[in-house]
Design a protein that fits this description.
Layout (H helix, E strand, L loop, with lengths): L1 H28 L6 H6 L8 H9 L3 H7 L2 H21 L6 H25 L2
């Protein structure tokens, strides 16, 4: 179990360092990742603005973060809970129950539906 905890902590630290590195590159040199969907179609995808929203959150500016991408505040908590759950399952070497699998399945469908609706509404 101890090795698994160390592995999870290493993954989280790596992702945090990666995010902060990307933040620094974007802030210092304006090196952002463009949205290919937007470039091709001219329409915003559900993810458009998430980078700016996360960077606004890092600065403590919640109002701007909500402006850039509201979906982050709808889907974000579900995604964070899912990641924590998966880490828990991994660390304690548990087996995923059928009930949990069903909940995850329908939550995924719900988030997909919300993403599609959000995409349509933000482009009207």
């Amino acid at each position: 179990m101890k090795k698994r905890i160390i592995k999870v902590i290493s993954i989280v630290l790596f992702l945090v360092i990666l995010l902060l590195g990307y933040y620094f590159l974007n802030y210092k040199f304006n090196l952002g990742i463009p949205c290919i969907f937007y470039k091709i179609t001219g329409y915003k995808c559900p993810g458009c603005g998430i980078t700016r929203a996360i960077f606004s959150l890092l600065k403590g500016n919640i109002k701007n973060a909500i402006y850039y991408n509201k979906l982050l505040f709808i889907a974000g908590p579900f995604i964070i809970i899912y990641i924590i759950y998966k880490f828990y399952i991994y660390i304690y070497d548990k087996k995923e129950s059928k009930k949990a699998k069903i909940i995850i399945k329908y939550t995924t469908y719900f988030l997909l539906l919300i993403s599609i609706l959000y995409s349509i509404l933000r482009n009207i």
